[in-house]
Structure formats: structure tokens, C-alpha cells
Amino acid sequence: MDIVGPDRYYLTFNAESFSVQCPRGTDKFSGIATSKMPKIYVVSAKNKPIYVGVTRQSMRNRLRGGWDASGMHGYHGYAWRYEHEAACLDIWAQRDAPDENPNLELETVEAEVVFLIRCAGQWPLSQTEIHFHPSTSEHRRAATEIASSYNIVFPEVAI
Fold first, then answer.
1. For 41-72, what is each residue's pLDDT tens digit?
2. In angstroms, how far apart are the furthest CA atoms of the chain?
3. Of the N and C termini of the chain, which has fewer Cβ atoms inside 10 Å?
4. pTM
């Protein structure tokens, strides 16, 4: 897997809306955040992951979907928008995703990242769903690299 990132953004929000701030001083997403590549993203508050997700949409569209959700079809949107007012958004993308089922690899990494967070204490506080697929050492290695970006003490877990 050829994974690039992270690109970091800062979000401020309430239950109804969000705004984004790029470290480069703009209020726009760019680069991998706007690409159609599969992306894994981690939302963190005080450097603790509170949500891990996967998408191929642009991040602005994905976030907007999490804010506009009404509960129709069972999706209520991001729970963390009610619990916090600010968060960091880190985004990684897979450059070599296969044409068939392009999200599969990063969904597998997503589950492994969430598992590592759980091993360090508790599930991400606002995690509402997860996709489980058989993982390889490559998935687990990628998950360890992503999870190590945060102030979490991980126990020894077999890679």
C-alpha cells in the first residue's frame, strides 16, 4: 500500500456548522483532502483520537454529510460535533488503491487503528461504526504508523 499523509487541518464547529483552517493559513481543503483517492481520517481532540473514518469523497463533502444528517436511513451524522467545539483532522490517502473495491484496504487499516486505540484504553469516544476485514501485517503496520501520531501508549500488539 502506498499511503501518503498526514495532512492536518483544524476544525471549529458546533452542532449545526463547521469551519476549517489549514496550517498554511487558508480556510480551504487542498491536496489529498480534495482528491478522489481513498482516505482514512482521524479526528482528535487534545491529541486523543475521537473518531476514525474512511471516504473517497472530498473531505468538505464528507464532513458536510456528517453535519447535514437527519437520522433518515439510520445515519445521524457525527456524534463528536455535539461533544466538542474544536478538533484536529488528519488525513492520509492511498495512492495505489485497486479499481475494484478501492476502500477495502483503508477500511481494514481503519479497523486496526480503532483496535489499537481500544488496546490503549477505550474505543474512540465518538466512533459509531467500523468495517472489519481480514488484515495482513501490512495493514497492521500502516495502522501502527497512523496511531502513533497521537499521545497514546500502546501495549505490545502482534503485527
1. 999 999 999 999 999 999 999 999 999 988 88
2. 41
3. C
4. 0.92
Q: What is the Cα–Cα distance from 159 to 145, expressed in whole angstroms?
A: 12
Half-sphere exposure for 62 (CA within 13 Å, toward CB): 21
Bond preceding residue 6 cis, omega within 30 of 0: yes
Residue 74's CATH number: 3.40.1440.10
Considering the domain boundaries, does residue 116 fall inside one? yes
Q: Which residue matches cell numbers 465518538?
A: 126
pLDDT tens string 84-109? 999 999 999 999 999 999 999 999 99
**Range of 74's domain?**
3-147
Contacts of range 27-30, beta carbons closer than 8 Å, 24 or more positions apart:
29/58, 29/59, 29/60
Does some domain include residue 153?
Answer: no
Whether residue 157 lies inside any domain: the answer is no
What is the count of structural domains for the chain?
1
Distance CA 51, CA 17 (A): 18
